[in-house]
Predict the 3D structure of the following.
Amino acid sequence: MVSRSSLVTFASVAVVTGIAAYAVYFDYKRRNNAEFRRKLKKEKKKVDKHAAQAASEKQAQAPSGVSPEELRAALDKIREEGQPTSPAESEKYFMAQVGLGEQFVAQGEAFYMPAALSFFRALRVYPSPVELIMLYQQTLPEQVFKIVMEMANMDVEDRVQGYYNHFPPSDMNVSVKPSADDSKKILVANKDFELGEVIYKELPLVADLDIDLQGKGTHCSYCLRQIEGEPTRPDTDSLDAAYCSRTCYIRSKMQSENLLFGLDPVLPEGADNGLGALTQEDRKKAQTEFVDYVKSKGKLMLLLVGRLIARTIACETLKLNPAEPVADYTNHGLVEKTYSIFDHMQRLRFVEGKVTQDERKLLAAVMASALPGVSDIVTDERLATDVGRMSYNVIGVCPASGREDRPVPEERPEDQMRTRTPYGTSKQVGCGLYLVSAYMAHSCAPNAKPTFQSDTTELQLVATQPIKKGDEITMAYVDVSQHPDETPVEARRRRRIELARGWRFKCECTRCVSETTEGEEHDIGVKGDEAKVEAVVRRVESGNAGSADTGPD
Ligand SMILES: C[S@@+](CC[C@H](N)C(=O)[O-])C[C@H]1O[C@@H](n2cnc3c(N)ncnc32)[C@H](O)[C@@H]1O
């Protein structure tokens, strides 16, 4: 049934899950095309006037009368048709579908269903669906509007609720499932694995060298491998990046380096409407200030969040240019139509991070100097959540050889960064955010371990015990060995404190439970589990997405 709440459902979910593909382009167009802005303003005024009227009239809330089966079949067919890929094609497609819809409507009620399908097709490619829905509500016959809304809700619900049917990709041999008490997510094996077998390989969404290795030229700034011979060094890189190969250089540049630390234009030719108004000097200055801050304060997580935002923008702008060989620059089909990076990220658990005003300004200035207007998305709230989510989920990259020269951190490792490495952080060269591995729970008696056998950021998850299909897969977030100077009780207490300080949860693993001694429990600084999941995600997953509140709890 189409009701106001389902309209809100669609609106809030569509907004928070990222309008994606054309957002950057259209946003620019809107800001810069006076005619477009005038038209939008006029339409908005019309809508505001009618909205008050409609509210008082309390529109009928009956369903469209079309059966869910019929709607489902129509939706499946429309999905199969695919969507235009370039902005120009999208605009053409949008106009054509709206024109068709109008023609069908003019032919009378018998043609309302095909009319609604055309308007729905147009809605799917429009970058601001909420605005369009408001226009539809005021201009389309009620019956047509209801069909469009029912289809839109079905589309969004499938996408949001069906997320874990599509992710992780099936070739990774694992699924994300709810835990037995439904309070969290766990990673489960889709088949049996023998001891020592590789369960899956995963590339990071973003990764970075430890701060002390940045700019040194000893390790690749993209794959983090130790560089043999002369590194590839771009002339104008503000972070002094060095690469082990041209492939790494190109990938890094395409994914985040150019936007953050390079000077090439960010949008594809023709899509920027002359927006690259800031000079290269402005861009360099903003970049240098950000780099100086990150390096002097050791803010690796802020750097990674910058990369994350840059990569999100790069993914969306790459979609604007179908001629680009997208797959070459991306990992695991991350640039795909159904889910954006934002969709992936917002499902990860986190503890809010601390970000100062200066930090936000420095990062926003880098973004603004490359792509004016984009700095608007770097809000205090978003940054605190992103930094929290990043530091909560990254995994330390420890190549087989590791390193012995890592500076001893002044802060406790778990305060400075939580890099989830079973070897401790002392040997790592950097860290990466791995979207699938992020779901692995900690166990003090884990059955799997992340390894970096190719000496790059590619994570290979290896079974450290035989694993049966359906078993939960776990890793150690901290060093779970018993040190020579420790009793079992002391070792248990050490790892539990480290977990509580770093990840704010009380370990409930089988080993901790079995090693509990009577009267021994002590205050480890946390009562239960203080990690959060984005409120909108929780609501959507519990089938109650109607609220407009989209912030974390
Ligand atoms: C990095 S996330 C792992 C994925 C997470 N379980 C989820 O629901 O998305 C870490 C969170 O998992 C849970 N967790 C992981 N290992 C745990 C353990 N040994 N005992 C209790 N909770 C654990 C805690 O809620 C913690 O906040």
Notes: Strands lie at 174-178, 185-189, 198-202, 206-209, 395-397, 430-433, 441-442, 448-451, 459-463, 474-475. The first strand starts at residue 174 and ends at 178.
